[in-house]
Amino acid sequence: MTVLTHRLQNGFRIVTENMPGLKSASIGIWVNAGGRHERVEQNGIAHFLEHMAFKGTKKRSSVQIAEAIEDVGGYINAYTSREMTAYYCRVLGDDVALALDVVSDIVLNPVFARDEIEVERGVILSEIGQALDTPDDIIFDWLQDVSYPGQPLGRSILGPEERVSNFQREDLSTFVDENYSADQMVLAAAGAVDHDAIVLQCEEIFGTLKPRVQAPFLVGQFKGGEYRQVKDLEQAHFALAFESPNYKDPNIYTAQIFATAFGGGMSSRLFQEVREKRGLCYSIFASAGAYSDTGTLTFYAGTSGDKVSDLANITVDELKRASHDMTEVEVARARAQMKAGLLMGLESPSSRAERLARMVTIWDRIPSLDEVVSQIDRVTVSDVRDYAATMGAGAPAAMALYGPVADAPSVQDLQARLVA
């Protein structure tokens, strides 16, 4: 497999990886524009824009966009995150040129018809309502808000109902003008792809697109705090977070290995101690997420109201204990899980294209898999213990609780327990 890159004169980047033996391909455009690039009055506009891209362009109706891809057996989709928006297709190798034409069309030529805006507004408001009705979904928005209060990084990607209810065509166009420039886009493709053919097509489609200086976003500062909503639900939902390394921090691998060993699978400490030994919950996990300038280590569990206090306290006790007795066996297992997950995931052209786009956006290059595996293998038991200890050294913590949680400990109680 060979990774090839190319940069047009306007800064538009192209990265491809041919995967011999595959008959299909994944191709998409990743735009360095997400929720954290919004001003407060724009909150939710990046996600709204993603929806509107499929509602018609200068040469295709919404139906024609769907039919163009589905007529050849492919699929097309998109997503918005806090740092980027992605538009992508999966098709057979013979249809890569068609897929690139369609994806570029919806990104560059949306018409934002006012009647379609009203239709999609209703769809998004329903999506917001569904999120609010899904406790193990909305709790992470609340956790993000108390982790990064008053900051773009802490705002919901969907946006508040009152803003979504009032977005107009001009708001969408303004966000595009401010963020959808040539130097903020990456075209990534993997599978049965021809690099030279894609470059030629990109030169024709994107060559005249102008570069533009994107306004800097506010650097994320993990503050911590607590959000608690008491409600008569079947489950008490508990989420706890600490700051963790950003994408470029070498310690990101330590954080990820710790999260995997501590709560990443059925053999992890949290799963074994909290679920298997004590029966306090059905679902429990830990994860380490990263942004360009910060990151978040998150613990989540759902339990009954009479068990939430025990669950929260035991989670903190196990976290404290990990700083002293995390073992080589646990770390070795976590390293193996990370490497296997990385390599198995990259057997899919969609995962490959996603990785290519993210690596180019973060590093402006593609680190080899050997380089990444080497970084994972360098993490020692001492590194993992030291990382766990940072959370017991007075580090800020954020907590969100939802359901029958009136008697759950406060975030201050948990922090005090950590340092006791």
How are the SSEs ordered, and which strands pair?
Layout: E1 2-7, E2 13-18, E3 24-31, H1 45-52, H2 62-70, E4 75-80, E5 85-92, H3 96-108, H4 114-132, H5 135-147, H6 161-164, H7 169-179, E6 185-191, H8 195-206, E7 225-230, E8 236-244, H9 252-263, H10 269-277, E9 283-290, E10 295-303, H11 308-325, H12 328-345, H13 349-363, H14 369-378, H15 381-390, E11 397-403, H16 411-419
Parallel strand pairs: 2-6, 7-11
Antiparallel strand pairs: 1-2, 3-5, 3-6, 4-5, 8-10, 8-11, 9-10
Helix pairs in contact: 1-7, 3-8, 9-12, 9-15, 10-11, 11-15, 11-16, 12-14
Largest sheet: 6 strands, mixed
Low-confidence stretches: none
* Helix/sheet category: alpha+beta
Strand content: 15-25%
Estimated radius of gyration: 23 Å
The neighbouring-strand order within the major sheet is 1-2-6-3-5-4
State the gist of this model.
The protein has 16 helices and 11 strands.
Give a description of the structure.
The chain is an alpha+beta fold. α1 packs across α7 (169-179), α3 (96-108) runs parallel beside α8 and α11 (308-325) runs parallel beside α16. It contains 16 helices and eleven strands. The model has no long low-confidence stretch (mean pLDDT 96). The protein has helices spanning 45-52, 62-70, 96-108, 114-132, 135-147, 161-164, 169-179, 195-206, 252-263, 269-277, 308-325, 328-345, 349-363, 369-378, 381-390, 411-419, and strands at residues 2-7, 13-18, 24-31, 75-80, 85-92, 185-191, 225-230, 236-244, 283-290, 295-303, 397-403. Helices cover 45% and strands 19% of the residues. It has a six-stranded mixed beta sheet, sandwiched between helices. A five-stranded mixed beta sheet has the order 7-11-8-10-9, with helices on both faces.
